[in-house]
Fold this protein.
Amino acid sequence: MNCRPLPWALRLDRLAEVEQRALTGDPSLLTGLPQNLPGRSRPRHGGAAAKGAPPRKKARGELSSKVDQLAADMEQMKSLLLALQPGTGRGQAGLQPDPPLEDGPPLDDALSLAASASFFNEASTEDDASHTLGEASCSSAQGSLQGAADASMAGIMRGALARLGLDAPQTDPGQTSAFFRRNPAPATFTVPPSQEYVKELHACWRDSRALSHSTTDARTLAAMQDAAQVGLGRMPPVEPAIASLILAPDEALRPDARCPRPQCRVTDDLLTKAYDSAARMGRIGNSLSHLLLGLSTSLQQAQVGPALQSLSDASLQAFALMARELGRTMSTLVQTRRQVWLAQSPLTETCRKVLRAVPVEPGELFGAAALEALERAARARQTRQELSGLHRSMSAPSRPRGPVATPQRRAQPDYPGGLRKAADPVRCPVAIVLEFLQSLLDSGRSHSTLRVYVAAISSRHEGVDGATVGCHRLVSLFLRGALRLRPPRTLRAPAWDLPLVLEAMSLPPFEPLTQVGLKWLSMKVAFLLAITSAKRVGELQALSVAETCLRWNPDGSGVVLWPNVAFLPKVLSRTHLNQPIRLARFDSPSEEGRSELLCPVRALRAYIAATAGIRQSEQLFVCHGGPNRGCALSKQRLSHWVVDAITHAYGASGRPPPSGVRCHSTRSVATSWAALRGVPLEAICAAASWATPGTFTRFYRINVADHCPMAAVLRPSSADSKE
C-alpha cells in the first residue's frame, strides 16, 4: 500500500473521476475498494456455502444503496477539500490556507490518508491499519460537518468562539447520586467572559461618575426622537395628585417635587440617577438596533453563507433578549420609586397595594390608571362616610334623663359630630345645640373651646330667626355663663429663671466652645437662638445654612438667617412669611467678660464649623449622634434640646428642675424680659410675629421683675447708711 499523499491537483482530478462514476452508477468503481469497508461486515468464506447451501445472487437494490452511500461520502469529502483549498475564499475566517504540497513536506491529513487507502491503493492486499485509518477519517469528516451544520444557539456560539480562537468551557455537573451512574447529566454549555466587555463594564463599576463626559459619538448614538414618549427620557416626575398627599400644595405643584424626609430623598435621588442611566443605555440600544438590522439586511442582499447569516441572526436574538431585560429593569426602578412615595403617604395598605400593582406606563410614574384607582378609593371612602352618617341619622332609643348609677368619668360628646342621632346638623333647633354645648362643658372643655365649636356649627347651620346660631341670644348667654364658671387661667409667674440658666450657659460643660462636645454645643446654640429670637420651634427648625438663607456681616458684627423657602408659618400672611432673624455680636466689655460667652453669633459660628464634617442636610440643626448623625433634626427633638438645657442648668446650680417646662415658654420669658429692659412693643411684636400688642399682653406677658418690689421701703436709704 502506498500511503504517500498525492499532489493536490491529482487528488482533485481523481476525486472528480470517482464522483462521476458514482453518479452514473458504474459498478466497476467497486473493484478498487478494499474488502472490509468501515461500518460494513462481510461474512467469511465457509459459512452457508460450506454447508451445501446454494449461493445466492446479490440483489440490484443492495448494489444501488452502496453506490448512493458512496456518492454521499464523496460529496462530503469534496466539500471538505474545497473548504480547505487555498485561494477559494470559502474557508473559515481565521484559518490559513495550506501551502502547495510540491514545495513543502508531505501533509499527513486524515482525508488524504483515507483517500489513498480507499481509492488510490496500488496494492490489492488488505491491511488492518488502512481500515482503522479509514474509520478515523470518516468519523472526523462527519463530526466536522455536524459541527458546521449545528444551527442551535450553542453551536453558533461555539463557531463564533472558534473564530476568535477561544474555547467554550464545559461545566461538568458532577455526580449527583451513586445510584444514577449509567445516565450522567450532560455537560452545561457556558460562554467564557470577554475581556474587552468586562473591561468596559468595570470602567464605571467602582465609581459611577467616571467617564460621565459624553463624547461626540456617544451623544450621537444617544440622540433619539420622542425619547420621553417611549419612556427613554428622564425619570418621570411625581404626579401632583400623589405628591399632594405628602407635601404642601405649593410644593406638590412643582415639576421636580422631592420627598420631605431626608433619607427617603436620598433613596429617591439614587433611583432617579439609575433610571436616567438605564434610559441613556436604552437610547444607545435604539441606535444599535438600527445598526444590527442594517447589517443583517446587507448580509442577506450579499447572499453570504449560512454560517455568517447564523451569526447575524444570533446577534439579533441576543440583542432582543437584552432589550427585554433592560425594560424589566426600568419597570422595577419605577415601581421602587412608587413605593418610596407611597410609604410616606397616609393611604391605607390596601390602597398602596392597588397603586403598586398598576401596570407601568412608559414616561409616567403612576399613570392615569393609578390616578383613577385613587379617585375610586376616594369615592368609596366618601360613600362609606355617607352611609355611616345615614346609619347614625336613623332613630334610636332615647337616652335616660335621670341620674345613672355608674362610676364617674370624664364625659365625652355623645355621638360623632356632636349632635344626637335624630338631629339634623343643618336644621336642628337651638335647644339641641345648647344640649351639645352643655355636654362639652361637663366634659371639661374651656370657654375658648366652646367658642370654636359654636363657630364650626354656625358655618353650616342655616340659622334661626334670620341669624346665625352663634348670634342667638340663648347661645350668647350660655357662652357668657361658661366664661364666668371657668375663667381663663393665665400664668403670670415665669416657669423658670432666665438669669440662672444664662449663668449656667457660661460655665462647663457649655464652655469653652473649642473643647465642649457636640451635644452641649448643640443645646447651647438652640437655647440662645430661641431666647434671642422669640420664635416658635417650627421657625427655628426651618433655618438653613444654605448661602441664600445665611449671611454673615462683612465686618463680623452679626448674622442674618432666613427660613427655608418651602417653610409655611403658622399664620399665613405677608408680614409673617420669610421673616429673617437678625443677631448681633456681643462686644466683651472690660469689666464683664462673661457677656461674650453668651454671644449667639459666636456660638452659631462654632456650631456650623463643628457640624460641617458630618452634615448631610442644609438644615441648620442636625442630629449630633445615633444612626441619624448629620441628618435634619425634627421639631420635637429641637424642643427637647431647649428643655434639656434648662433642666441641666438647674441641676448644675443645685436646685430642683422646674416641672412642666416647655420649649414654647421661651417666647413668653424672652419677650417679657425684653419689655422689662425697655424694648418697644412694636419691636417685640415684630420679632415674635404678633399682629397686635394685645396678643403679648393677654397671653405671653409674665412678671419677671422683682417679686417683692415693696420690700424696698424696709431697706435703709443711702443717706442713713453713710451716717
The chain has four domains: 1-33+67-83+106-149, 224-385, 430-485, 500-709. The longest helix spans residues 262-302. The beta strands are 170-171, 188-189, 550-552, 558-561, 581-584. The chain has 25 helices and five strands.
